[in-house]
Fold these 2 entries.
Entry 1:
Amino acid sequence: MKPAAFTYHAPASVDEALDVLAELGDDAKVLAGGQSLVPMLSMRLAVFAHLVDIGRVAGLSTLDVGGRHVTVGATTVDSRIERDAELSGAVPLLTRVTPYIGHLAIRNRGTLGGSIAHADPAGEYPAVAVALDAEIRLRSARAERRVGASDFFTGLWSTVMEPDEILVDVTFPRWDGRCGFAVREHARRHGDFAIAGAVAGVSLGEGDRVERAAVGMFGVSSTPVRVRQLDAEVIGRPARECDPEQIGALAASGIHDVVSDMSGSASYRRRVGAAMVSRAWAAALEEAISA
Ligand SMILES: Cc1cc2nc3c(=O)[nH]c(=O)nc-3n(C[C@H](O)[C@H](O)[C@H](O)COP(=O)(O)OP(=O)(O)OC[C@H]3O[C@@H](n4cnc5c(N)ncnc54)[C@H](O)[C@@H]3O)c2cc1C
């Protein structure tokens, strides 16, 4: 099928794009890599009279690796994130989840900002954002605001963004010291959206005690999930005493709206989700212990 007719806008700057969005309101939609939006338009699941292509906007495809934070511009494509050696050392989870996103041709076009704005609960980048407490910068012609990832996702494919706002960039914290990170996901075939998946980060202090922990789940609920109840369970405890199976079970038991669809029932997803958390946690821990 073909999309319904639309007017194509190709602004050269963020200000120009924001002016177009402010003028057109709900009739306009931002177009980034097009890997989610174009199929929806083609299948007529969505119809917009105006598309505002931000692909040529100067200064949005940035990757700034600083000493304490990394800021990824909205239109930075997945394949760049996958290959950037400096980023891989600074925020390993971003690099490690990327090969799970579709296939290379999709990752050459798809953007980090698009993935987060699209808010698919099975998306990998949204889960990394909530797990690491990333900060999302939004701009409109009216104002600029920064939103914590945990407050950004409001439901299935929905966020706090207003129609006249553009997601400009996302800032991730760098972790220092003895850290380990891992992703595990279960999908029918490589490149498919996950039925359930988990990302984990752990850092160790004196006596191999857990100093910091971050676990995110995707594919299990209507939004990506940051498993906060784990913090009380593991922080300060010797790493070897934290049983991965118990951690997986605890994580899955805290999710109240587990998705049930043709890819899997809620009880299946809960079990797979628990297993993914437990495996990601165990792998992250091993990496931290041997760091
Ligand atoms: C076959 C296939 C398999 C895939 N598998 C996976 C997978 O396993 N995991 C995964 O996470 N994704 C997967 N995807 C989706 C892919 O990663 C998309 O690239 C991503 O979801 C959207 O990024 P995009 O840049 O293509 O955004 P677009 O498709 O251009 O836009 C998506 C939505 O976000 C909005 N948007 C985009 N950028 C901005 C911005 N800067 N500010 C405001 N709004 C914005 C658009 O208006 C639109 O509503 C798959 C896609 C395909 C086609």
Note: The two ends are 52 Å apart (CA to CA).
Entry 2:
Amino acid sequence: MQAQYFLLENQDSYEQWRQQKLAAYPLDLTALMVTLTPNTAAYTAQIECLKQQTQRYNFALYRFAQPDQVTRYHLHQLAHALGLTDLHANLCADEDSLSAITQTQHEGQHDYIPYTNKALSWHTDGYYHPQDQVIHGMLLHCMQPAQSGGESHWLDHEIAYILLRDANPAYIKALIHPEALTIPANELKGEIIRPTSIGSVFSVHRGQLHMRYSARQRNIHWRNDPMTQEAVTYLNQLWAEDQSPYIVRHTLQAGEGLICNNILHNRNAFQDNPHQPRLLYRGRYLQRVALPQH
Ligand SMILES: [Fe+2]
């Protein structure tokens, strides 16, 4: 039933859903931030609150009441409570498959902007993954913010779908084409460490909309047809103008984090305190955040 919203032929249910989604904006992030107190009686209700917000906005924000006591164990515990159990291990993940996002010189990571202090363009996670490793859920936890900069911008991918469909329904048609977006193979020292990834931008998985996207300009091939090109230009303009009331902006502080159904996001450039470099932990999951019980 949920998939009906996204189908181009179902204009009525789409309109209804669209109105509901947009009416929630602008969001008040301060009000949405959920304070977490693990190992207390209130924790179950706090988790439920995160699930409710993720159901509504495809993301939720939390803050641990005691940031300095948060360990990787607490993050796994949190993810698990939210139904995020299948953690995807990427090339740069540590042994327990949470990736430490910080400036680093490790071989193999040098090409990846996430591990530098440069601005990170709009994307959803795992847009270069094969079809059987689609990332549906994500947790991003801040252990240490940068000295300056490092603000994140987020946009619910369902809102991006709405904006594109409002601009021209043909954009949606172009972006659900199975060859809309190609990411060439990743090679390191002549060895292919990730094969070419070809797929659509929008797809529906178990009745839920998924978006596979990157605004990067290099090593990316958009399908060579006018509507695809126009849709890409539309999104590029949206990012360049940076005026949309639906884009949410926040700099994660120590102990704070984002839970999401792999929404669109970017990050501003930042400057580190050399003694306390910015450090975030990221988990990528093969499922979405669980639905609330009520
Ligand atoms: Fe990301």
Note: DSSP finds seven helices and 19 strands in the chain.
